[in-house]
Amino acid sequence: MQQAAPQAFDRVLSSMCTDPHPAARAAAERFLATNPGDPATYAEVADLEARAVAALGAITGLATASGAGEGAEEPPHGYVTGGGTEANLQAVRAARDRRNVDGANLVVPESAHFSFTKAADVLGVELRTVSTDADHRADTDAVAAAVDDRTALVVGVAGSTEYGRVDPIPEIADIAHDAGAYCHVDAAWGGFLLPFTDHAWGFADAPIDSLTIDPHKCGRAVIPAGGLLFRDAAGMDVLAVDTPYLESRSQASLAGTRSGAGVASTVAAIDALWPDGYRDEYERADGVARWLAGELRDRGQRVADVELPTVVADLGGGVVESLRERGWRLSRTGCGLARVVVMPHVTRKILRAFLGDLDEVR
Ligand code: 0PR
After folding, report:
1. In the predicted model, what is the mean pLDDT of the chain?
2. The domain at 276-361 falls in which architecture?
3. Which residues pair with 138 in a beta bridge?
4. Residue 62 — pLDDT band, cuts 50, 70, 90?
5. Residues of each domain in the chain carrying CATH 3.40.640.10
6. Where do you find CATH 3.90.1150.10 in the chain?
7. What is the whole-number distance in angstroms between the Cα of residue 31 and the centre of ligand 1?
8. Is omega for the bond preceding 244 within 30 degrees of 0, making it cis?
9. What is the pLDDT averaged over residues 194-216?
């Protein structure tokens, strides 16, 4: 059988996936046939998963959050999921079961990823979607007005899918906790970028309860590798079900058999890139995004301010379609604006060619 060529990324402008780090590819290959869902049989990959969770804890600040000084660091509790959707669903499930009230609800800003719609549907939780402000961040007054004594979870997004916005996480955590609810941060995309900004978003600076951070997005691991972290062991405990015919006694993941490739590649990518490689990439992407925004503004386009490296612009009617016909994989936001996510494969050189095509089709 003829082999298909590997995915070429050079015209992919709106995806959150990218070329995995070479060490991540190699590690994935080695662990393709292992199952971290069965740790008694696949002990090596189970150990790697513990390392992955500890490393994600260091990146999000949880491993240094115990406040008891050197040597007192405590890793978070969590696992490598199939992606952000599974992580978000499991966070809602854990909060629902820990909160344990009839008719539980979930409060999310309208900028939240559609995985919360799936989670609410599957879990039988009422979804309360609240408005964002003029700059596309969660409106804290709207969040406060939506919570009540049946709210199980309040979600803040740290790196939104459409605009790359970071919600006011400390305020959202306070609102959640005042209502007796849990606070979850969806940093599926932003998690590997935020450590290099001055945002208070993680476990160290904001008292959040759980977090999504996906190695298969900006972490440069292979698909599938999402990350779910809890501050307290109770988050994982409530998800665990008994596993009578496995050596290990319980399982907290949603999937049963899972790919060890995602786990092993997460550790390999983080070993290779944390912190300097991720910092260098964040600084590069931030520079490229601001440069692209400037180039588009110079052409008279309306461009949203850049926060994390996503550029959203109004290119005018039909332009996205014409660019797609020329091979650019460009998608649009809910309101029809063009959106470029500056992932590691999106370089100035590629964007110069893109701007050349844009000038021709306009
Ligand atoms: N949370 C956030 C903030 C996300 O952006 C995404 C995915 C998820 C959770 C869900 O993660 P998984 O897909 O790993 O389950 N975001 C985009 C999505 O809807 C990625 C994207 C965006 C893909 C635009 C293609 C595209 O054209 O899949």
Report:
1. 95
2. Alpha-Beta Complex (3.90)
3. 132
4. confident
5. 22-273
6. 276-361
7. 25
8. no
9. 95
Stretch 306-324: mean pLDDT:
95
Cβ–Cβ < 8 Å for 119, 111: no
Task: Tell me which residue has tokens 């995995």.
Answer: 20
Pocket flag, ligand 1, residue 281 (CB < 6 Å): no
What distance in Å separates the CA atoms of residue 85 and residue 91, rounded to the nearest whole number? 10
Give the chain's end-to-end CA distance (angstroms, integer): 43
- CATH for 22-273 (3.40.1640.10, 3.40.640.10, 3.40.50.970, 2.40.10.120): 3.40.640.10
User: Is the minimum distance from the CB of 162 to ligand 1 under 6 angstroms?
Assistant: no
Closest CA to 113 of 80, 83, 151, 150: 83
Lowest mean pLDDT among 39-43, 94-98, 282-286: 39-43
Q: Peptide bond before 215: cis, by omega within 30 degrees of 0?
A: no
CB-based contact 150:107 (threshold 8 Å) = no
- The crossing angle, in degrees rounded to 10, of helices 43-60 and 260-273 is 50
Q: What is the DSSP letter of 196?
A: G
Residue with tokens 């300097």: 276
Residues sharing a CB contact under 8 Å with residue 120, sequence separation 6 or more, in sequence order: 92, 106, 126, 127
**Could you tell me if the CB of 333 is within 6 A of ligand 1?**
no
Task: Give yes or no for residue 310 CB within 6 A of ligand 1.
Answer: no
pTM for the whole thing? 0.96
Beta-ladder partners of 185: 156, 211
Alpha carbon distance 227, 214 (integer Å): 5
Question: Closest residue (by CA) to atom 24 of ligand 1?
Answer: 15
Task: Find all residues with CB under 8 Å of 244, minimum gap 6, and list them.
Answer: none
pLDDT bucket at 151, cuts 50 / 70 / 90: very high
Per DSSP, 291 falls in state: H
Q: Is the ipTM of this complex over 0.90?
A: yes
